[in-house]
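subagent[fold] <- orchestrator: predict structure for attached chain, return tokens only, no commentary.
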Amino acid sequence: MKDILRILKSARELKNYYIAISFFTVLLSLLTLLQPLLSGWAIDEMRHGADANVRYVAILAGLIFLLDLSQTFFGNISGYLGDQMSAKLLKILSVRYYEHLTVLPQRYFDTELSGKIINRLNRSITQITNFMQMMSNNFLQFIFTTVFSLAVVAYYSWQVALMLFALYPIYIFLTFRSSSTWQNYQTRKNKHADIATGRFAEAVSQIKVVKSFIAEKAELRFFERHYQKGVDINRPQSKFWHTKDVQRRLVLNVIFFGVYMYIFVRGAQGVFTPGQAVALILYAMQIRIPIFTISFLVESTQRAIADSKDYFEIMGVEPQIIDKPGAKVLRINRGRIDFENVSFGYDDKRPVLKNIRLHVSPDSKIALVGESGQGKTTLTNLLLRLYEPTSGSILIDGQDIGNVTQKSLRENIGVVFQEPALFSGSIKENIAYANPRATAKQIEAAAKAANAHEFIHKLEKGYDTEIGERGLKLSGGQKQRIAIARALLKDAPILVLDEATSSLDSKSEGMIQEALERLMKDRTTIIIAHRLSTIQHVDQIVTLKNGRIDEIGSPTELAKSGGIYEQLLKLQGGKKTEATKKRLREYDIAG
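subagent[fold] -> orchestrator:
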């Protein structure tokens, strides 16, 4: 029951719809209640044969017709309200889910497939919405109709009312006995559907990799295998459900046999008039219909409970990184960054960073160099507060970033990723992602500074050109220049640069390097180095080893220190053997 209440409470703002639908439900139930009564009166009047009051019978027929008309109109009004409530509920739950996901920690997305997250949204919210629509359009009317019908039946015969009432606790008891087993089956089916959908999303997003390795059939087999698991689980689940449904219905069949036998016998004995007997039978039929329909309702309810677990489970995940009460807005005057004894690990057993003490001067450029997995990207993620340090603190102009709002922190940090992340839409929209209020002139100025205006201008629709999901219609260099234009438009005083020239041709690299120089001007810049040639003019190089800072110095100083940077320079300047290339790759350095 608590799961049902949880679903009902999930959208309290729709209470006006609940009230209106409940009103029409009660009204429809009362209208339904009158029909057997009027039919019984008509039959009793017709017993008089030629002496029957024809006008009275005709009036009763007219009233039954009016009841039918009323049910037609009121039923559709109630259905319309139910449909509107369902659509609004779908929006409310979807927006709430999306909003909650955006505040979840980065760790959550590190361990979840995007396809799974999307599938849970579709499955859970669709089932909750369908359940609420079913409740509003069917279930409530069944309940009220049954209650009112039992009250009238009890007026004529408490024995019949008692037998009919006994249907519900027996049916509900038998249903709940099988509920947990059915839901376990459903949970297993959902798990395989999530795995299949998650892999599907991965394969589609990396279709070039799939095709290049001729893995289409392997991916298809993986997808099909998990859906086949769902089919295999569905077989015993369906068999279990229908076996239990037969048992439930047999009990109902026996009780209804007793009801009809009692009405027929007592009617034959003259205890009930023919009209009363017919009315009782009609009322019993009104109760019988929802009872047998309850099989569908119960299955829908169980499905909603099972499928909504993922939704409520995710909604119950607490954001690990939140603004402290009274968090201040970050104010940057100079752009100095201090890492004070910062340690961090993605789990308790494997620390990635250990006691990092690093000071970045205002308007300076530093480059992070180290083997893959030594914490270069982790340092920048901590600066963006995508993760919290295990210990230590990070300060910007003397302000602990843990004490300022996340919004103000990220507003002051621009990021250019190694793999440019663009969205479907126009080039203009992608550049303006940094500042949706930017004017066309500002967007164009940013594109010019990023060396992107020339190729954009040559496109048929210019800045209004649609670039497709993830910018698939553009070359790597073009996408990267748009990403740089976006960062330029943001105009943040601090820049994180996951150097983006490692996989480009020399022409594109030259244009992007020129654009990056403009971007880095008068900003405090942290560069994750991928080409040694592009960091020769930074102010400081910081080498990381075993989660600690190994060396700090200018490129000139470290070129003679015998440390990591000097070794890499020798490797890059020497003969390009496979061993040399492999060693450079270990440091994420392009050979």
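orchestrator: received. Logging for downstream: The chain has a mean pLDDT of 81. The two ends are 63 Å apart (CA to CA).
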